[in-house]
């Protein structure tokens, strides 16, 4: 299933969400121009669990800096565009409910928590982890609790055909979370590929943190 849009309009312009999307795309364009130096760049600013634990003991910046920089790096066009599309659809409403400043800290904390979830489970991995999907998973977790009555216009494959369907957001997000859990359970070890447990950890952390960040609920909502 692939989401096209949700049914709740943001009441304020999502300044921070838009800026995060722009930063991720600009960083990826910079990556694209590195050519043969890209691997060195990813190794330096991606989050590698082995290097993280070495840094905790020997050089703290080597541990801390990649936790933040890794969430603004991506491994390919499909990776960055897919992540930014999910953030575009769900992030504006979450920013609306936590405020612009609150959303900055909420997003970063979700990204940190997601990265550490994967790192704690695979401490001996030598594969650099990159991508905003852990932080975005936190946004999805917040959306799941904040907007239980929302619906998502979704492309659904049915046999050989693609159908447009409005699916309750809770159903869409539960399906997404279960898929991450099943994929993570089957992946076994961190040998590269998708950091499924960062997605799972990010989603759960977002659900927990939203209670600290959300503003008092207002009565008025804008629906499409």
Count of helices? 9
Topology-level CATH name: Rhomboid-like fold
Helix proportion = 55-70%
**Rg over alpha carbons:** 18 Å
Poorly predicted runs: 219-224
Q: What CATH architecture label applies?
A: Up-down Bundle
Average pLDDT, all residues: 91
The spatial strand order of the largest sheet comes to: 1-2-3
Number of domains: 1
Helix/strand structural class = mainly alpha
Task: Count the E strands.
Answer: 3
What's the main sheet like? 3 strands, antiparallel
Question: What's the layout of helices and strands?
Answer:
Elements: E1 2-6, H1 15-32, H2 38-45, H3 49-58, H4 60-69, H5 77-98, H6 100-121, H7 133-146, E2 151-158, E3 161-168, H8 169-187, H9 196-213
Antiparallel strand pairs: 1-2, 2-3
Main features:
single chain, about 220 residues, mainly alpha, three-stranded antiparallel β-sheet, 3 strands, globular
Please give a structural write-up:
With 224 residues, the protein is mainly alpha-helical. The chain has a single domain, classed as Rhomboid-like (Rhomboid-like fold, Up-down Bundle). 63% of the residues lie in helices and 9% in strands. The chain has 9 helices and 3 strands, in the order βαααααααββαα. The protein has helices at residues 15-32, 38-45, 49-58, 60-69, 77-98, 100-121, 133-146, 169-187, 196-213, and strands spanning 2-6, 151-158, 161-168. The longest helix is centred in the middle third of the chain and has 22 residues, at 77-98. The relative contact order is 0.18.
């Amino acid at each position: 299933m692939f989401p096209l849009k949700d049914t709740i309009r943001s009441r304020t312009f999502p300044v921070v969400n838009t800026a995060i999307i722009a930063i991720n795309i600009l960083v990826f364009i910079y990556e694209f121009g590195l050519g043969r130096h890209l691997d060195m760049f990813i190794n330096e600013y991606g989050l590698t669990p082995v290097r993280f634990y070495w840094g905790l003991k020997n050089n703290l910046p080597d541990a801390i800096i990649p936790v933040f920089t890794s969430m603004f790096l991506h491994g390919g066009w499909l990776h960055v565009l897919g992540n930014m599309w999910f953030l575009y659809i769900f992030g504006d409403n979450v920013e609306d409910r936590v405020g612009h400043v609150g959303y900055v800290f909420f997003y970063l904390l979700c990204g940190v928590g997601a990265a550490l979830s994967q790192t704690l489970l695979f401490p001996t991995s030598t594969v650099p982890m990159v991508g905003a999907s852990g932080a975005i998973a936190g946004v999805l977790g917040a959306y799941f609790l904040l907007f239980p009555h929302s619906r998502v216009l979704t492309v659904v494959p049915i046999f050989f055909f693609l159908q447009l369907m409005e699916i309750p957001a809770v159903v869409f997000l539960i399906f997404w979370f279960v898929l991450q859990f099943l994929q993570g359970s089957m992946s076994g070890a961190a040998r590269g590929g998708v950091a499924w447990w960062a997605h799972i950890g990010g989603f759960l952390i977002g659900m927990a943190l939203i209670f600290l960040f959300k503003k008092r609920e207002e009565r008025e909502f804008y629906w499409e």
